[in-house]
């Protein structure tokens, strides 16, 4: 673009903006106030902005980072003050990261383990108030399977005691279920043995009901010109004469 064309375009845009910016304000006294046109600012990017619009852009406030939800929290183990931690963030447990024992005390367990080991139902974990906190993790056996729910073992044990009343009652319930499970296994085993015996008997009955083919042993001379053969299977004797 030549300098002459650029200057002409700049002057034209300025005139248009000035004409469109004049506003007549009628007040109660009957006088007329004229609002001065805003200053035109060259952005340097090939277009112009009114000064007010530029101020709006510069004054745009970006939302600040969210404040930490947990302030002035004291660790239940060491008693020290901390602002946030892994267990506080995910499980609302006031334990700092230094005191976290991920291998034992603060171990995470799967939903299946929580249900089998502590005899909990889905509703006990997710619907009974307050619902237990959990995190989602990809299944290590197959990434295409659904995400695993991992619960804090400490909170699962507490929920189990709320339902069963005591560790003794929980243990008795586990033993009762184990006995029932063993009985069911034995019942299935006996049923399979019975079916196997029935199949063997059926096979023997079909074999006995079939046509018997005699298998004779060596012939014996019993009298002059008289001979016999005995079946080695059923003992049948065949007598015949030889000329």
Automatic annotation (TrEMBL):
GO molecular function: damaged DNA binding; protein domain specific binding; protein homodimerization activity; sequence-specific double-stranded DNA binding; zinc ion binding
Biological-process GO terms, alphabetical: base-excision repair; intrinsic apoptotic signaling pathway in response to DNA damage; multicellular organism growth; nucleotide-excision repair involved in interstrand cross-link repair; nucleotide-excision repair, DNA damage recognition; positive regulation of transcription initiation by RNA polymerase II; protein localization to nucleus; regulation of autophagy
Subcellular location: Nucleus
Primary location class: nucleus
Matching InterPro entries: DNA-bd_dom_put_sf, XPA/RAD14, XPA_C, XPA_CS, XPA_sf, Znf_XPA_CS
Span of the signal peptide: 1-19
Domain of life of the source: Eukaryota
Family: Belongs to the XPA family.
One cellular component term from this protein's GO annotations in UniProt: DNA replication factor A complex
Keywords from the named record: DNA damage, DNA repair, DNA-binding, Metal-binding, Nucleus, Signal, Zinc, Zinc-finger
Name of the molecule in the record: XPA, DNA damage recognition and repair factor
Keyword Metal-binding part of the UniProt annotation: yes
Residues annotated as domain XPA C-terminal: 105-156
UniProt xrefs under PANTHER family: DNA REPAIR PROTEIN COMPLEMENTING XP-A CELLS
């Amino acid at each position: 673009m030549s300098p002459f064309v650029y200057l002409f375009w700049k002057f034209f845009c300025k005139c248009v903006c000035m004409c469109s910016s004049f506003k007549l304000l009628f007040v109660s006294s009957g006088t007329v106030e004229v609002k001065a046109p805003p200053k035109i600012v060259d952005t340097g990017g090939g277009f112009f902005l009114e000064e007010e619009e530029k101020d709006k852009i510069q004054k745009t406030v970006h939302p600040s980072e969210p404040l930490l939800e947990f302030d002035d929290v004291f660790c239940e183990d060491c008693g020290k003050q901390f602002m946030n931690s892994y267990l506080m963030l995910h499980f609302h447990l006031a334990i700092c990261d230094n005191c976290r024992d991920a291998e034992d005390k603060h171990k995470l367990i799967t939903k299946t383990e929580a249900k089998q080991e502590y005899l909990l139902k889905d509703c006990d974990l997710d619907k009974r108030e307050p619902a237990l906190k959990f995190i989602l993790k990809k299944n290590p056996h197959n990434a295409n399977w659904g995400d695993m729910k991992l619960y804090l073992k400490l909170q699962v044990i507490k929920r189990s005691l709320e339902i069963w009343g005591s560790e003794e009652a929980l243990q008795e319930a586990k033993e009762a279920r184990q006995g029932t499970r063993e009985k069911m296994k034995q019942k299935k085993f006996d049923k399979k043995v019975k079916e196997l015996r029935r199949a063997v008997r059926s096979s023997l009955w079909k074999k006995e009901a079939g046509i018997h083919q005699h298998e004779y042993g060596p012939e014996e001379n019993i009298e002059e010109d008289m001979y016999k053969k005995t079946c080695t299977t059923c003992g049948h004797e065949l007598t015949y004469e030889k000329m």
